[in-house]
Amino acid sequence: MSDTANEVMRLEALRKSYNVGLANEIEVLHGIDLSIGRTDFAALIGPSGSGKSTLLNLIGLLDKPSSGELYLLGQATHGMDDAGRTALRGNSIGFVFQFHHLIQAFTAIENVLMPLMLAQGKPDKSAVQRARDLLAEVGLEKLADSKPNQLSGGQQQRVAIARALVTEPALLLADEPTGNLDTQTASEVFELFRRFNRERGCAVLLVTHDPRLSATCDRTIDLVDGRIVSDVVHGKAKLA
């Protein structure tokens, strides 16, 4: 768990409804209270339809709650305009998805640099070096100039991880990041998350349907029918 001084993100009474004001209005999240600390390595689990994707979109500032408040690095976000939310998201949050969403026309290093290019235009030498260093950390320094179609699925996911970390985010959100990978590659990707969490102080929250994966996280948050039903801290373990 996290205390206020050590938290990256805090949700207070967060609710999300769709079709607001219509006869078919439905509330998907029912007053979520949750905090993520700077050293947390947590799994978000729950059955299909429990609201995991909705919650992740709210945490990632990709959507706005119907009510409640989300604090990111101490900043209240509910009243922010789109430009403010975009800037805070770009500076503070990294995303890794089940499908890596690399741009096929760009090389590995260009894909890694994409968040910086979107934020500040042409990257400077220090940014390019940071991208190269990250590719080296994920074992792809010799493939920096390769296009995605020249890389394996696991290698493409490693590029996506480097891309997520190039902005040096405080929080990394991963949505089924190993869902399309074989067991060995999934284990290697998981260990990369572990290393970045440990060495860079980047909090990690990953959504997974794999109980084996969630059991190896330090913390498991179980969401059922739009409510957190358990939030358990475990001892640290490695994925065998």
Question: What is the topology?
Answer:
Blueprint: E1 7-18, E2 26-37, E3 41-45, H1 52-59, E4 67-72, E5 75-76, H2 82-92, E6 93-97, H3 108-120, H4 125-137, H5 153-165, E7 171-175, H6 183-200, E8 203-207, H7 211-215, E9 219-224, E10 227-233
Parallel strand pairs: 3-8, 3-9, 6-7, 7-8
Antiparallel strand pairs: 1-2, 1-4, 4-5, 9-10
Helix pairs in contact: 3-4, 3-5, 4-5, 5-6
Can you describe what's shown?
The chain is α/β, with parallel strands linked by helices and 240 residues long. It has a single domain, classed as Rossmann fold (3-Layer(aba) Sandwich), CATH 3.40.50.300. It contains seven helices and ten strands. The protein has helices spanning 52-59, 82-92, 108-120, 125-137, 153-165, 183-200, 211-215; strands at residues 7-18, 26-37, 41-45, 67-72, 75-76, 93-97, 171-175, 203-207, 219-224, 227-233. The strands form two sheets. A six-stranded mixed beta sheet has the order 6-7-8-3-9-10, sandwiched between helices. Strand 7 (171-175), helix 6 and strand 8 form a beta-alpha-beta unit. Helix 3 packs parallel to helix 5 (153-165), helix 4 packs across helix 5 (153-165) and helix 5 (153-165) runs parallel beside helix 6.
